[in-house]
Amino acid sequence: MSEELIVRYCSPTLAGIKTGSLFSCSYSDISEMRDGIRYFNRLLGKKGLRVLPLYSRNNRALIYVYRPSMLITDLRDIGAMCILRERGYVGSTPVSFIARLKRRIADNGDFPHEIGLFLGYPVEDVHGFIENKAEGCKCVGCWKVYGDMEMAQKPFKKYKKCTEVYCLQYARGRSVEKLTVSV
């Protein structure tokens, strides 16, 4: 797992404008991947981020980078709670919800539809995705939009611009630690 991957796929989360991000990476052995996770947690934890593998298999890992403080707020939403409860999420902490998410990914071998709640997607769009079986959305950007298209365009543009700026800054030598905002 490299700084470059984290910057490329997690810039809005590093900037503190998005709850969480996901990316996939390869590793040569499991201890290498775990060492990378520990390294990035030490480096970015003091700025309010957590890094963890949601799933690993065949020398590939699905990495979740998130801001616990933002996730707590997102998952307290009544609509989010309903979606999660319907899918067997119990408890009241992000840790318990993430543990359930990891089990659902491992059991299904695929992304459970509620994963959008862990990434900061609007509840109405996650609900629409689930109800419509990923069909009939109004538009597609960082996620499929079933609710307010105009409101969704704002974060799409913001996330794209953030990623462009962060990738450029990283290419110019700025480290992932320097790019990460404390929130």
At a glance:
With 183 residues, the protein is an alpha+beta fold. It has 9 helices and 5 strands; from the N terminus they run H-E-H-E-E-H-H-H-H-H-E-E-H-H.
Gyration radius over CA: 16 Å
H and E string: HEHEEHHHHHEEHH
Total of helices? 9
Outline the low-pLDDT stretches.
none
Q: Can you tell me the overall shape?
A: globular
Strand content: 5-15%
Content-based structural category: alpha+beta
Range of helix content = 55-70%
Strand order of the largest sheet: 1-3-2
How would you describe what is shown here?
- 55% of the residues lie in helices and 14% in strands.
- It has helices at residues 3-14, 30-45, 68-75, 78-86, 94-108, 115-119, 123-131, 149-171, 176-179; strands at 20-26, 50-57, 60-66, 139-140, 144-145.
- It has 9 helices and 5 strands.
- By secondary structure, it is an alpha+beta fold.
- It starts with a helix and ends with a helix.
Q: Helices, strands, pairings?
A:
Layout: H1 3-14, E1 20-26, H2 30-45, E2 50-57, E3 60-66, H3 68-75, H4 78-86, H5 94-108, H6 115-119, H7 123-131, E4 139-140, E5 144-145, H8 149-171, H9 176-179
Antiparallel strand pairs: 1-3, 2-3, 4-5
Helix pairs in contact: 1-8
